[in-house]
Amino acid sequence: MNHEDALEAELEQDDQYLLFYVGGDIYAIRALSTSEIVEYSTITKVPLMPSFVKGVTNIRGNIVPVIDMLDRFNLGKTEVNNKTSIIVVNYKKNDETTTQLGIIIDEVYEVDDIDSDLIQETPGFGTKVDKKFISKMGKYQGDYIAILDTQAILNIQELSRVVK
């Protein structure tokens, strides 16, 4: 593969999104911001964390903090079943280093392209989720779905806030 082919392949991947269910709704995040999807496994609670920080889990030898996406959106708590999964997201900190964080989702839907021509700004109203968590709205199979801003959802400073 020459340089132009590699660049074109990278641009094609940039339109790929991981689509998943949380609370009965489909959401999307850029596929490139994720590293893997794992089955829900035992989570060790960490005291004094906000309720949406469920604790930490061991994924391939790495201790990864895990948050409940539904709880983060103030829409309840995820009920764990055999389809519940953890998406491991690469979060860029302010110093440009990357750390991995896990988000609990109800179910993976699929990985697919959303054409950039079908992506629009988020409206100021009409979404269940706080607008600060949504980066854009993408039209997928005739419906608009929220493309989430993982940097806002996984804001390290907010996640590490100690609850008294």
TrEMBL record:
<dbReference type="InterPro" id="IPR002545">
    <property type="entry name" value="CheW-lke_dom"/>
</dbReference>
<feature type="domain" description="CheW-like">
    <location>
        <begin position="14"/>
        <end position="159"/>
    </location>
</feature>
<protein>
    <submittedName>
        <fullName>CheW protein</fullName>
    </submittedName>
</protein>
<dbReference type="GO" id="GO:0006935">
    <property type="term" value="P:chemotaxis"/>
</dbReference>
<dbReference type="GO" id="GO:0007165">
    <property type="term" value="P:signal transduction"/>
</dbReference>
<dbReference type="InterPro" id="IPR039315">
    <property type="entry name" value="CheW"/>
</dbReference>
<dbReference type="Pfam" id="PF01584">
    <property type="entry name" value="CheW"/>
</dbReference>
<dbReference type="InterPro" id="IPR036061">
    <property type="entry name" value="CheW-like_dom_sf"/>
</dbReference>
<dbReference type="GO" id="GO:0005829">
    <property type="term" value="C:cytosol"/>
</dbReference>
